[in-house]
Amino acid sequence: MAGKTGADKIFAERLAKHHDELRWLYMELYGNADMFAELCGQMKHYYDLRKKSLKVLDAKREKKGGWYRERDMLGMMMYIDNFAGNLEGVLKKLPYLEKCNVNCIHLMPFLESPKGRSDGGYAVADFRRVRPELGTMGELAELAEKCHEKGISLCMDFVMNHTSEEHEWAVKARQGDGEYMSRYFFYADPSIPLEYEKTVPQVFPATAPGNFTYLPDIGHYVLTTFYPYQWDLNYRNPRVFNEMMYNFLYLANQGMDIIRIDAVPYIWKELGTDCRNRKQVHTIVRMMRMIGEIVCPGIVLLGEVVMEPEKVAPYFGTVEKPECHMLYNVTTMAATWHTVATGDVRLLRKQMDIVCSLPKEYTFLNYLRCHDDIGWGLDYGALSEWGMKEVPHKKYLNDYFRGRTEGSVSRGELYNEDPVTGDARFCGTTASMCGVESAGFEQDDAKMDLAVKKDLMLHAYMFTQSGIPMLYSGDEIGQVNDYSYKDDPDKAPDSRYIHRGRFCWDLVERIRDKKSVQGRIFSGLDALEKIREREAVFQADAQVYTRDYSDRSILWIVRRVQGEELHAVFNFSGKEKTVWMPEKAVYTNLVTGGVRETEAAELSGWDFLWMKRA
Ligand code: GLC
User: Fold this and answer.
1) Would you put residue 272 in left (φ > 0), alpha (ψ -120 to 50) or beta?
2) Of 119, 232, 262, 475, which is the active-site residue?
3) Coil, strand or helix: which one is 586?
4) Where residue 437 falls among pLDDT bands split at 50, 70, 90?
5) Can you tell me the distance from the alpha carbon of 257 to that of 66, in angstroms, rounded to the nearest whole number?
6) Using 50, 70 and 90 to split pLDDT, how confident is the model at 183?
7) How many CB atoms lie within 10 A of CB 493?
8) Which residue(s) pair with 577 in the sheet?
9) 570-608, pLDDT tens digit by residue?
10) Range scoring the smallest mean pLDDT among 176-180, 224-228, 310-314
């Protein structure tokens, strides 16, 4: 009894802390006090259902604050089936992930989703059921528990913008049930859809043109921003918001540590606008943050905001009224590959300066590659001043990464080439983009050496940034593009599957051979990860800035903390360079362990230095 009263008190205190603001925002958006009361009741319900062990973890994390910002954090994202067949398989493979130094696993979408109409699992038919071939909800909760015992956290997607057309709500809506139709956007005649089309851009111009889908069986148009089988939810309806929050809490209660809110900028629609990043989206995310802090404060909201730079940071909210805990560092990722293709670090430096000037509480998830394409969302204002105009530059990047320009070693494919604008995005694995695939094909050892170096240098650059580095499963063994998706009619139209191949366990066998590509990449990453974990300069509260250096292909980052200083220097060219330290001093090369007094250092092509000055 005492325990229950204590728990009630904790809940009451957390609710009291946020109640007024939450109510204010809810009433402003929905003006429905009954539905707000229901939401509060359900928050208590999910709090009561939350396992004791998770509540203990919540309390610990609440007290500590920013648990996800530790410098030893290392994530890996993976498809359950590609990596280990099913959830049970993932459980068995935890020792391998520990060997990779990974302590945060992002399991790509695994909820019930119709085969062949799933958008890689991003068309959810049931938010409370795991796809049967992958396992059960019970197994997910068990995996979370086993991970927690090992200090590993789990991340999953919460696809909140839309449901699958096979979701119970969609099925009922399609039968003409008005209550359910109001959870989506239905129109009996084309006039409003046509109005929307005037201002709403297209996400998949080639694979799913248009933003609406006509349903002949009921004679209605339904809003489908992504694929025709992904129906956009109508968050103007408080029933949608409430129910989706209950789904969110249900999933959090399975032991998830990080909830990735998929495609969040899209969740509020308004005629006459581009239907992206509306202010109501921020209201909803802020409410979600408070709901999380009341029921399950240990969890982290990771926002998927793949937008131009000025649209991204607002999703952190403010330090006083935070929204997402963490966001993808998407612009830095795209700018990194731009730098590989141009050998010109100016844009990347500018981007780093912007990120470094943000409050240190803002945490980014850094990555080189993920399951999606690379959209070339770069700062074209700056680029055009340097002579790189948007349309030809995108074309250059796409040509370069397909290996079609002089000197390029990259391999990969275009994605969603827009027949009207000629715009296209790009797909390929890190290793293929660095030249591992082409060097392997040509059996050219010298090229392979460079490719491995480039791959490690880019990872070192990712580890140098503050935030959580997230590896893409397979990158730790230099896995190259997988062209087999072309044989599967469901996948063939979507070139993102080129980098969503099955994990090659036979390549893992080779990591013990230190001369093999796999061995060099795996042990190279291992060394970097251990340095990052050990050295204080990688702490999240370090002061980070770039150094103006006379050579355009050299990116120089300084990290300072507690009297220590790291000089991280990256050579984005194939040429050997002598780099000049700011002054003659004693530096420790963190990678080789060498300590010496020096004012200059040698840097081979596509190599990097981590020099610490004490
Ligand atoms: C996100 C996912 C992407 C998916 C889209 C629609 O952008 O990362 O893979 O296609 O959302 O859910």
Assistant:
1) left
2) 262
3) strand
4) very high
5) 13
6) very high
7) 14
8) 603
9) 999 999 999 999 999 999 999 999 999 999 999 999 999
10) 310-314
- Asked if residues 606 and 531 have their Cβ atoms less than 8 Å apart, the reply is no
Candidate from 159, 260, 262, 470 with most ligand 1 atoms within 8 A of CB, to mutate: 262
CA of 100 to the centre of ligand 1 (A): 27
Phi-psi region of 210 (alpha: psi -120 to 50; beta: other; left: phi over 0): left
Residue 418: band (very low, low, confident or very high) from pLDDT cuts 50, 70, 90: confident
One-letter identity of residue 134: L
Q: 3-state class of 315 per DSSP? A: helix
Tokens of 329: 């560092």
3-state secondary structure of 65: coil
| H or E element that contains 610 | strand 608-613
- In sequence order, which residues have a C-beta less than 8 Å from that of residue 321 and are 6 or more positions away? 21, 286
* Mean pLDDT of all residues in 141-150: 98
Other CB atoms within a 10 A radius of the CB of residue 71 amount to: 21
The sheet with strand 186-187 has its strands ordered as 186-187, 220-223, 212-215
* Three-state secondary-structure class, residue 103: coil
Give pTM, 2 decimals: 0.96
Set 157, 165, 293, 304: catalytic member: 304
How is residue 256 written in tokens? 């998830």
Which residue stretches of 93-176 are H helix?
Answer: 94-99, 137-149, 168-174
